[in-house]
Specification:
Number of domains: 2
Helix content: 40-55%
Distance between the termini: 64 Å
Strand order of the largest sheet: 2-1-3-4-5-6
Oligomer: single chain
Number of helices: 11
Order of helices and strands: EHEHEHEHEHEHHHHHH
Amino acid sequence: MNDKLKLVLVDDQCLCRRGLSELLANCYDFAVLGATDNVAELHQLLDQKPDLLILDLRMKPMNGITLLQQLRADGYTTPAVMLTMSDSEVDMQNAIRAGVRGYLLKDMAPDDVVDAIRRIAAGELVVAPAMTMKMIEMLRGDQPSQDAKSSLKLLTEREREILQLLSRGESNKAIAITLKISYDTVKQHVRHILNKLNLSSRVKAAVLFTKEQETHFGKDSSRNG
């Protein structure tokens, strides 16, 4: 277990807890320390120093954001990811402000959930593909650095093609199918893109690309006008 990613799950629905536990426990690199809907039991699980806390958003009596804030106040610093049915931009915004590293949806394909959890554990900020455009809208007011803008010119044609698909919210698996290349090749390209742009997440790369496209087409429109 020492070299496995140790996970703790929180969900107030027994069926969801059991299903997610079985999905993740079957992964060779995951170890599920426990799944609960009980705060006292959760504290005991967190005392085992898990690598990642996966929690639902809309739980009773305490929702996931309030629970996470309480855990932080109690001194627990375990990185957290929200796994929820809510595709509300407000919920995602509140969750990210509360410090989650990922916002995933329960209707994602199981393999995509597993891949996202691995990426989150590796330090990425990951949101469900269906939430990517909403995340871009959230970040639209942030101005990318001039260095990041200039770095877009360093991307190869294939890397730009992949970045364009990322900006549409496509997962690595979907990109692989669209471009008829392997999943591992897509992952390698994404790593190269982030390294060249000096960015920590694909979401930020997607925002940068979207702003570049808006600027480009805006200039073209002004010329034609």
